[in-house]
Amino acid sequence: MIRYIIRRLLISLPILLLGSFLSYVLVASAGNPLAEMRARPGVTEQQVQELAAELGLDKPVIARYWDWLTSFVQGDWGTSVALGQARAEVFPSVTEALWVTGRLVVGAELLALVLGVSVGVLAAVRQYSIFDYLATSTAFLMFSMPIFCVAVIIKSYGIEFNNVLQSMGVDRWLTTAGPPTEGFTGSIGDVIFKYTGTFLLPTLSLMLISFAAYSRFERASMLEIMHSDFVRTARAKGISNGRVVFRHAFRNALIPVATLFSLNFGAVLSGAIITERVFGWFGMGSLLVDSVRTFDPNMLMGWLAVTATLVVLFNLVADIVYGFLDPRIRLG
Questions:
Q1: So what's the architecture of 94-147+200-325 in CATH?
Q2: Which stretches within 30-129 are classed as H helix?
Q3: Which residue of 31, 48, 182, 266 pairs with 314 in a disulfide if CB–CB is 3.0 to 4.6 A?
């Protein structure tokens, strides 16, 4: 297992290197960060050239990429080059946005995984039952609804719920405009009240979409395993249905879900753009949108580097999980 992990990491390094180079070339070719400054009245060409030299934009793309790469591996991710804004450091900006999105996504994905797998297993075991039809209908409904539609509907109901609470003389509970700037302070009861009210709506929005995918994949995988030869053999030996389902079928049926979870978690963690925008969170998604809007190459490259690394790591985690779920898979 250790040799396998080391080998995968060594293979991932050139992939990340090539990906970062292609991303840098695409970002550098997308436009000129100094175009806005050059269009301002009263700005001379000399001032533009001085700023270009300061930011290293007067060099060829390959030279700029090499400068960025050598600084990046040393922990210097550069500074923002967006005009009209404070020259923020890229590393703390990206890590802060990742922390915000991580808190939002981890709970949503874990809840979606647990509920989705549970519903999928039960729907497969009780195939063509009322529960199976309800679970299937709910999953298809969530699949057919865009994430922005789900988020807006949930936010609307949250606002109405707050209005009902306020009419009853109770403080508004559900937050629809981002986490509190002062943090979660007060007594334990106040902290729990603010924390749950802040995370409930965006977590629910992200969870519903992922829940639909996990439940459908788990149901399909369970049905396939339940009709396999080794399950029929186990039943022929007189093993109880519960032991057949959870001891033999369930573990093997988790493999496709593990793949989906690893890919989906990395993608959602890198930027739940719409959900963050609807509920006023400034995380990885908002960072990406702002970086594209202001054309900030350094911030974009920081976002891309973190996103690519997460995708590679979660794929590695999925491969490792395969070895534990199915001993027939040898990773050494």
A1: Orthogonal Bundle (1.10)
A2: 35-39, 45-55, 61-73, 90-125
A3: 266
